[in-house]
Amino acid sequence: MSGLDAILSDPAYHDYLAILKGARNGLVYGVKVRFPHALIMAILFGRGDWSTRLRTIYRATKQHALNLAQFVSLYKTLLLAQKRINGGKERRFDTFIAGLIGGYVVFGERNAVNEQIVLYVCSRVVASFLARAKTSYSNAPPAAGRPLPPDSKQFTIFAALCWGAVMWLFNERGETIQPGMFNSMTYLYRDSDHWSSLKTLLWHNK
Question: How far is 17 from 130, CA to CA, in rounded Å?
Answer without folding.
Answer: 36
